[in-house]
Design brief:
By secondary structure, the chain is of the alpha/beta class. It has one domain: Vaccinia Virus protein VP39 (Rossmann fold, 3-Layer(aba) Sandwich). 33% of the residues lie in helices and 22% in strands. The chain has 8 helices and 9 strands. Strands 1-2-5-4-3-6-7-9-8 form a 9-stranded mixed sheet, sandwiched between helices. Helix 4 links the parallel strand 3 and strand 4. The longest helix is centred in the first third of the chain and has 17 residues. It is globular, with a radius of gyration of 17 Å. Bound molecules: S-adenosylmethionine. S-adenosylmethionine binds next to helix 2 and strand 4.
Length: 247
Amino acid sequence: MDSTALPDAVRRVLPLLTTEPAPVSIRDGYLDLLGTEERRPSGPVQALWESRAGTAVYEPAQAFARKVVARLRPPAERLHLPEGGTALDVGCGPGTVTAELGRDVGGEGVAIGVDVSRSMLRRAAGACAAPNVGFLRADATELPLGEASVDAVTCLMVLQLVHDRQAALAECARVVAPGGRVAVLQPGYAGPGADAVAAAAGLAGVRMPGHRAIAATLRAEGMTVVEAETTAPVVRVLAEKPAADHG
Ligand SMILES: C[S@@+](CC[C@H](N)C(=O)[O-])C[C@H]1O[C@@H](n2cnc3c(N)ncnc32)[C@H](O)[C@@H]1O
């Protein structure tokens, strides 16, 4: 396919992919790297996020929640994203955070949103795509990007829905460049009755690992943990890949 027919941002992302897809399949404004393969949602909540109704409800709900609860907001400048850099938003949902990352990297940079939900991606590409903001359909446990190909990764409110959390975290650590940061945010609660809360969430397919488990996985992947805490309603972990040693 003639790559000039692709959305600008997607065209800019192609060189970062591990393998250029053939054919390049653009669907509703995003690059679909999973094709027609049907995948079973990880639970009822993920099934909701893969539906039109769930997507329609999620976007205004997250905007309201982030206005009211500061801890739910993306880490912004703590990501240390360079102007002109490349940002990856894993499990981008409706693309609002990806668009913010696009503003942070500026016109010379690029922000890439990745998700498995066609309906979220349709909304993201329709509302948030820009010359420097593009969207891919791919799985967090098998990111299609090359090693050390991005300057920062966000994975916000996603891991609770992923079958293989360790694989997703390993992928975040793999694709970030030395000196780059990975920010993880997910639902969390460590107060009285935490086990009962986790068990109830589990019934809806929502896993609630604490910050220690997430931090331990990122450390095992060679990252340095900068911050790890659980303050209801969220777990926040920020980690940095050690800069390359040129000595
Ligand atoms: C609660 S939404 C969060 C969206 C966005 N990150 C935010 O903070 O507003 C969770 C998103 O993760 C996506 N997701 C779940 N499992 C995924 C996986 N294995 N790979 C990629 N995305 C996934 C869902 O489709 C959904 O869009």
